[in-house]
Amino acid sequence: MQGDRQDRRRNAFRARLLAGAALVACAPLAAPAWAQTPAPTTAAVQVVAPSDGLAPDAVYVDADHARRVGDSIVVSGTPENRAYVRTRGHVLRGENLSYDLNAGSATGEGDVEAVAPDGTAVYASRLELDQNLTTGVAVDFATRLANGASLMAATAVRRSETVNELNYARFTPCPLCDADGPRRPTISIQAERVVQDEQLRAILYRNAVFYIGPLPVFYTPFFAHPDPSVERASGFLVPIVNYDEGRGVSVEVPYLHVVSPSEDWLISPQVNTKVAPLLNLQWRRRFANGMIVARGGYTYERDFGDFDLDGDGDFESNVRFGDREHRSYLLSHGEFDPDGPWRFGFTAERTSDKTLFDRYDVRSPYQDNGLYYGDRRRLISQIYAEHQTDRSYVSVAAFSIQSLRLDPAYAATDFRDADGFKVFENDDTLPLVAPLIDARWEPHELVLGGRLRLKGSAVSLYRDSFVGAPILNPEIVPPITTGLSGVDSRRVTGQMEWRRTVILPVGVRIEPFVDTRVDLYSMSDLPPMMGVDSDATLSRSRLSAGVDVSYPLIKRARDADIILEPVGQFSVSNKVDLDPRIPIEDAQVLELDESSLFRMDRFSGYDLMEGGARLTAGGRATIRWSEGRKASLFVGRSYRFQQQDAFRTSIPDAPGRLYDPTGLASETSDWVVQGDFSPSDRIRSWVHATVDGSGEVRRAEAALDGRWGRRNLATVSYILDRSNPVDGPLNRNYEFVQLIGQQFLYRNWGVTVAGIADLDENEITRSEVGMLFDDDCFRFELGYRRDNTRARPGGPSEGVYVRLNLATFGGSGYGQGDMR
Length: 820
Fold this sequence. Notes:
- There is one protein chain.
- By secondary structure, the chain is mainly beta.
- It is built from 2 helices and 49 strands.
- The protein has a 26-stranded antiparallel beta barrel. Strands 1, 2, 3, 4, 5, 6, 7, 8, 9, 10, 11, 14, 15 and 16 form a 14-stranded antiparallel sheet that branches.
- A hairpin with a 2-residue loop joins strand 2 (65-69) and strand 3.
- The protein is globular.
- Mean pLDDT is 85; it is low at 1-50 and 812-820.
């Protein structure tokens, strides 16, 4: 008998759940769900009903049949044309409705829908509401939450203003309706009892069963998760599961502890089967005018990787080596923006082990925080302050750098030191920068009809170890540098720029300009044996005048617009004496493109300066044939009246020879070619290249993005550098192709691929191939990855990865950025 009763209860439960699902599956998306409005813990929020034109106690009725029975209004309709009652900002729809005028309560039967003044809506086959139309009982209850999730129950009781109780309920974050009608949710939670407590801002489950499709996969007698109105709440996040040859199976289980709306902790231990765990911590705190994020990790373990333990020249694979050591990292930053023109901040980034991030697969260790950014595999610690108004800007900063890069002399080989480790870049060769000052100011009024801008800059750099070319000019680098101190330098720069714009009646745009600049340098610890003083102070200046001329033309065809934009610049400057004693710290990288080609200072920094007379010309042609569809091409080049041999530096693998890494040393610069092509809103591409006078491509970048179907996509990118003419261990030329894409093969099933190919070495440096399932509420990836680029002691790293993202519950990992 007991079993019969259980079977009947189970069958009734399924039937009522299906009834609730049918109500909510394809119902219009309502506003926040019943009992879903966030409730502060300290005071209640009074919801003011919107004005609907009715008197406070008036009732509006729209029904096929309506009558009054005592103090009650009874109305009825049909499933196709349900009855409608509105009063005190509340709306009721249903086949049969009753409203008590004296008590202010209401009941409804037959596809009942109740909408509260704040927009919350519920659906039921039967609904009873009290005198405030807030608490009540619902049969075959269903609702859709503000985040798209659905909640259904055989019965629902609103016990109080803050507590809802649902019996035999099911919750799912997945859509229950698609183009073909109702559908089974991909993931769901079914429970015997569910309590939604607005004061706790949590949903509590008793005897919960987790389902993937129709299959039960996990049972727990108790389960809880935050109310969907809660942005952040304490609890476990989705685990991160990986397999790596060095660590074995790796499981990271993040736990978020919310201290307050402005502070939280993320405790994320990584447990490994082959090595000791790594404890990851993150603390975030937002203040009235700023925030701090601090990440850190710690482990106590030996080195592991590929080592030659017996000295026979063969590396044993994935062994632990040496003594246990304390290993840790710190990645933190802070930003503060008080009232007024000043803002300030800091970053603190350091690791005790230069291979720690790679060994333990630490997520996103290289981030762009603070005023200055460390590039990939370099960490930066800095303090800074900025002052900005509508006409002025001043920044003051100081920073130091830790490098996690391999030593350039051995990066292309598998060279190891005596202990079997690869050799990393020496941090003593990187400068301590303190301070670095940048300032700009413009007056409100025009000066001689044009805009005047004043600029200033100052910097001090200190090195512990000597660095030769390309920092120092090859002329003063001695043949033996062992034991030499690093060269320290200080610079102060002042600059004035005046520019005026004149547009002639025919449409020609003319911009005359004047630019003057003065640099003061002081150096110490220069190499003494090369015929220069170890300490030196010198100055240099440049006065330039010129004009920019452009003449944009447009032709409107029947199906397209054609735009031609020829641009020219002529400038004259005094000849600049580039003293060989000045270190080249901030101008080693030059991105010659459409915008920088016409600047007076085309270098990224101040240490290199152009002089003499030059002529620069270029033009862009654009065709647009519909919204978002266009093709564009720019070609330009600069001509100098005299060569600038000081821009040449020694070739790393042939110090006796010089080359031009900038493309500006000759009388003619490299050609700049830049274009983009978008034949549709699903295909975009662009290319940028510099080409020397012989037609050889020196540098190039290109990318192609494509989308097809609803979710299929791919991105292919290409990058090339051929500026160094001599091959060797120190040659930094490269050529890479990168591919990222996903293709769905059957419904929500597909494959995902990612890879980087080194065309110089003819090898795949990184690759991922995985299986993908994605139905907009549940994304699961299982795949294989291989990494040949890591700076770890051993060879390639291989492993299996698992990525999981669940709607409402979050994904694999936790954001490292600002609190929102």
